[in-house]
Amino acid sequence: MAITKLYDKRVEDILDSIYYDVQNPASYGGVKKLAKEASIPVKVAEKWLMKQNTYTLHKPLRFKFQRRKTLSYGIGDLIQSDLVDMSKFSRQNKGIKFLLTSIDVFSKKAYVQALKNKSANAVLEAFKKLLKQIGPIKHLQTDQGREFYNKKLQKLFTKNKINHYSSHSEYKASVVERFNRTLKNKLFRIFTHRGSYKYIDILTKV
């Protein structure tokens, strides 16, 4: 019995050090990712997570839908971008109201730029930073928001030979939208753990 308790305590310490370390890819995430990172059975990770308010309070409902695959033929071939409204937390985050999220559909590598507003100049500067991070982009998919279709931004896309388009179907930019859900879910778990809505100090680590 003593050995079992010692083992349980050791496992709990390991899970705690992984889950609450914002720099760990498995932090504030789901069961399978945590189990893989800790090299333990999924059931053990799930049992531990069900004791954590940060997990149970923000556990998403999952629905399975038939989705059309989004095809990409290499790094930089297709980038999906979106704006996430975080304005209600701006006071705690140095006036940041929006997050420009972008993801390379092929590599699944994501990028996040913090914006104080979604003016033409603010979005333009965010995309300039994105281009420096990613490099050449062939195709860029966004929604039909005016912030993505201002003249200054379109000029940047033309200059860099980027084919910018929006999908009119129900699928839209599904890859970046899925990333947005993951990011927001992770942030809300961090809010619960910290007891604060401040995130700007750890955004690049999430």
TrEMBL record:
Q: Which SUPFAM superfamilies match?
A: Ribonuclease H-like
Gene3D superfamilies documented for this protein: Ribonuclease H-like superfamily/Ribonuclease H
Q: Where is the Integrase catalytic domain?
A: 56-206
GO MF term set: nucleic acid binding
Query: Any one Gene Ontology biological process term?
Result: DNA integration
* Record-linked PANTHER family: CHROMO DOMAIN-CONTAINING PROTEIN, INTEGRASE CORE DOMAIN CONTAINING PROTEIN
UniProt-recorded name of the protein: Integrase catalytic domain-containing protein
Source organism of the structure? Trichonephila clavata
The organism that produces this protein has a lineage beginning with: Eukaryota, Metazoa, Ecdysozoa, Arthropoda, Chelicerata
